[in-house]
Fold each of these.
Amino acid sequence: MAEKVLMKGNEAFAEAVIRGGVRFYFGYPITPQSEIPEFMSRELPKRGGKFLQAESELGAVNMAYGCGAAGGNAFISSSSPGIALMQEGMSFLCSAEVPLTILNASRGGPGIGSIQPGQADYFQVTRGGGNGDYRIPVFAPASIQEAIDILYDAPALADEWRNPVMILVDGLMGQMMEPVVLPEPKTPVTSADIPKLKPWAISGSEKGQRSVVKSLRLQPEVLEQHVEKLFEKYNRMEQELQKVECDSIEDAEVVFVAFGTMARLAREAMEILQSQGIKAGLIRPISLWPFPYYAFDALTDKTKVVISTELSMGQMIQDVQLGVKGRFPVKLIHRTGGMLPTSIEIVDKTKKILEEVR
Amino acid sequence: MKPVFEYTKGMTDAITSYCPGCTHGVAHRLIMETLDEMGLLGKAIGVAPIGCSVVAHQFMNVDMCESAHGRSPAIASGIRRVHPDKVVFTYQGDGDLASIGMGEIMHAAARGEKFSTFFINNCIYGMTGGQMAPTTLIGQRSTTSVDGRTREQAGMPLKMCEILSTLDGPSYIERVALDSPAHIRAAKKAVRKAIEYQLAGKGFTFVEFLSICPTNWGLTPPKAMEWLRENMIPYYPLGVYKDEEAQDNGDK
Amino acid sequence: MPKKQFKVVFNRERCKGCELCKSFCPKKLIEMDTQVNARGYCPAMMTDQTQCIGCQSCALVCPDGAIAIYEEE
């Protein structure tokens, strides 16, 4: 059993993804994740990897596309406005079925916004952002350890599905320190392994077949077939990749739904309410796409209200409503712009909501 | 009978989708003939652009990927990191490279990325139907400059060989033309030099091909060749803009 | 020494009738057929093989890989 070490979020994320097999990083500085490119520039060359600072986020995602198309395990990281630029590439990667691990440290928006934690990019990351019908699995850990575990598995997951995979955190998680256990490093794929492991990758036709990585399909019937094939894959992802943590929901009168940093605050609020004799529970989606709708089926008639708690004006609430299917009223407790509510603030607002619905 | 000229096996059997007389076919062939002659078809990885040649991978008989508009140099930089022992090239048009992809090409060149870029300059956006390109000449008509491009309205056309040769990263830059058999022979030599320099581990190499777009210029292919000679070559002079080897020798 | 004899072979179906070969042939030996090929183009053809000097101009400018040249042995 490995030892516990105290690590800062951003460095732990970078270390985890290297241990997960990533050997290529492409990035462009943006707060609050710039320690990741800094860490990668120091660490990757020591471990036989390559670091390249891109001219822009557009450059970074396309370097990663080239790297992934060529069979390499690539990693990119950015934050909200940078992710917006990268989404051009993400659409291409999905269509061309090129694997990639992406970390998004989301911040306050819209526009250049603020650098404080935000969740107003929920639509951006779960509803596309780039053009066309595509899906990217998005995981939102609520602790550094959980982020490490997800990032460690992400390169293999991206390879398995031949699709990008995103991990959504925020600056608060990037900056805080927690005791963590780091997993054993995986053996990375070398260039010589690629023709055998990924015959579809562009590694030169001397491997015995010519490979073409593409997304253009000018004939509509051909494109339709391709998208339908992609959706067979996405449908399987929906079955296999849903992840959720539920706490005290069976007899809960009020159920919070929250992810990431907000889930930590909602959990505190839940515990305060419980200590005051109010039955509160928490549904914490870990996968935002695919959203764990099924978790809401476990709610009983004892539930009076479901509260989506978000660091946005209310985006995830639409998925919460889909999960609740009209069985209970759905309310919103939120702050935005990089502001965080205190747990007491959530408790007070919850009590007001309970008065309304009782 | 002894073959004197045959279609290279560097090209697939597919008939290209390009218009009659379009010199994309000539540029494709020169690159693929050179790779074939150097025994590199199995080691080559190409990046196709956005534009008419988005489908270049249907015709160039090597491993290839498509790119988003203008991003090929970034993509090639990524491929290079994974396969340092392969031959990597991008094939890009003037809108792709000199407009939307200006950031990517400048920085790849500045980094001295070890791949070759083959730049097709025909002074127009072909696939979208003849709009003004960053290289459209003053006075040249396009569907977004119907009375001819003016300096006042659109500025001056960009000279990519000259711009890139201000950087320290590139090792070889040459502008060639595809308007005559003699120039086409010279163009092939430039392609070979670019690939040789890449193999030797020198920096970024760049060959600009002055090309024709008979369809969007509204000229027959033979007339388009004349137009290239009379209008493009005076503004875009042919020649070697950078040659690291020649410079090294000159210093000695 | 006898004069070298060349044979220029046009691939009718690859030809798009652009006339570049015709315009660059120094001996003016290439004409366009009046019969269209399957894709609707009037392909190029040689009028007099015996006059060909084997300069390859036609093949060099051909964008469509429609021309092959052989030397008679």
Amino acid sequence: MTLTSKPAEAEPTAAALPGAADVVQRARHDPDVAGLGRGRATVFVAPALVIVAVFLVFPAIWTLYLGLLDYSLTGATAQDPSFVGSQNYTDALSDPVFTKALYLTLLYVGFSAVIGQNILGFLLAWYFRTAPRAVRSTLNVLVLLAWILPGSVVAFLWQALLDRQNGSLNALLHTTGTAWTIDHPMAVIVIFNIWRGAAFSMLLYAAALNTVPTSHLEVARMAGARPWQQLRDIVLPTVRRHVLTNTLLITLWTFNDFTPYLLTGGGPDHRSETLPVYIYKTAILGGHLGYGSAISLLLLLANLVIAVFYIRLLRGGDDESALRKAERKARRAEAAVAS
Amino acid sequence: MRRSRQVTTIVCCVALSALLAGCVAGKKTKSDPTKNAKAKDVSLTINANDVVGGKNAAEANWINSFVIPGFQKMEKAKGINATVKFNGAGVDDEQYKTKLELNLKTGNGADVFAADGIWLGELASAGYVKPLDQVVGPSAATWDGWSQINKSVQQNLTYKDKLYGIPNGTDGRVIYFNKTLFGQAGLPAAWQPKSWADILSAGQALKRISGVNPIQINAGTPMGEATTAQGFLPLLAGTGKPLFDEATGKWQGASSGVKDVLNFYKQIYGAGLGDPKLQQDKAGRDESFANFSKGKIGILIEGDYFWRSIICPDKKTCNATAMANRNSVVGYAKIPAEKPGMGVKGQDFVSVSGGGGWMLNPGTKFPQQAWELMTYMVSAEAQNELAKAEIRISPRDDVNATTLANDPLLSYISKTILPITTYRPSDQNYNPVSVAIQQATADVVSGKSASTAANTYQSSLQKAVGDAHVETG
């Protein structure tokens, strides 16, 4: 590929132009589709790689290393950390508090992000997509406020809402004396996170829903499809990839979310202690830096597993394989008819 | 090509590990007492868990409006330009401690900082603080103030026979009670329980008043050290044996004393004599202060900090929890042993004392001037000034002699409580042990049995200090 042909092909709009398929086709066989050459490509990528190395790869290796030490914030082991091999890891895996924290994290992610934020965000986007502009803007502002306010401010507002003696919720329900954060700590942080994070899903789905061709919906309506059928057979298949991307993002965010600490402090008695809170309490407040690093690495691994899982789903579900599946289905149907 | 890449990778890994190993070990700072001793421009920072308008407001005001201008004036007279900055905080002690340790770990932090005596073991064995004679040199020993500071108070800032700072006083724990509620319950205004059973029976009487939480003895993990120092330890001292045996170096495991204490907690929080949810609340201790000041708690164990900094009549110092009628409504009594004569050393009554002080950052740029600032803060003049805003047990006997008489509780503590009190060990393992204690009380409060909680406590204790250092039975 010559340098002169580069600008036209590098244009992002090229894909929409006639002949785009040609470019894509070539890209499959020629790795250097932009025509930069190895040297220049390296220069372009280097700053990003350096940042990734300094802020992501190095801390990960550092964490791995610290996890192998008996190392604490205070006391004699702060001065002379000793190498203990995998003991921190085996300790963590056999510690009931750790396994409970892992379990609570999965509950928290599952209920608040995967189910809660996803569904609430989608419903808000779906029901308000045809609403008048004024209603939509008001809704957007309200939902976004929950998302953009700083966590500490929001936590303070929620404390005022849930306070046992003078909380607004107790005043509304006439249940003075009910300690919501103590009696139902998990429910509180799950609902809190749904409320706080639904905005992102809503925005993403609102954008995704715009990509559903109106003509398809009209055809479906003329054919007598009910709203639920339209949603199931036309909308969801179209926005499926958006759903996966959204779920991947909110899962990872929620997995690492520290805000529950501001509401319940992980308590009472570890009952809302998700992994990030457990790590904070162990490593920073408890001063067990080595052990804390070991758990952090386990959290990192859990994140990687989740990311790989979703990316697999995304890849497996790309248009080509869907097409192939559809073809197979059609062939089978034909065969069935023939026999 | 491939070969050289492998070699590069290996070299990089080796270099990286060497680098990492170098980074982890604590910084070995050499102290030089004479560093900058003749400097004309000096800048110092003071750090304490005090904040104007919040926690320990009286001390924060005193530092800002007396210590800093006074010290700067004094230095000016010697031709030295001193700038002193105060970094106040108003957070839970645990968080203050963490921040302090992180600062010291990275070689930063204030030149002079307030620290609790029980942290000393951890700080010193980590190398974060050093004995005064190393940082300051011989002038540390010759300060004339030492003669005014009682040996037992100096002990709070002593680790392995070395002084690490200047104490800023001591304290004592007592039982506070609300006389108005006691009147309603038919209990005497001059109440002095003689055993734990007396506390429980008073609690039963108070329980009949609606909307009142009879007894508040700190428990659970959110209250942190307050659970150990104000709740568990004064009770444990009432069962005869101290938590830590200095002679054998052993901690008390699930002994009969520990079980008795946990059982007492059970009798309070399992029978509606206390509010178990308050102990589990993230802001439980502050709630308990607020509730007591509103007359909603009958009996509460706390240190004199509660009297002078929480429920004092002055709204400016004590903010929302100030009690204008404190002196007539709030009574106080000695903490009884489980049964008369069962306390440590055969005592009928027990208490727990502590106390912190001003410590010197070994990494300070101006060791001599920082030391001078510390001695200025604990000078008779400065301590008398502090007593104007808030009377407390000063480290100095000469100051106590004139100020304590002005406050009934503090003179009571210095005359009656200090002679019978006990101190917490300054061992470097104290903190993890204290955490295990907090968890044991949390278990009881959340409904587990006292013996289950005691067994969990014993196993966490063994994990924290090693089997060899746990006394069982």
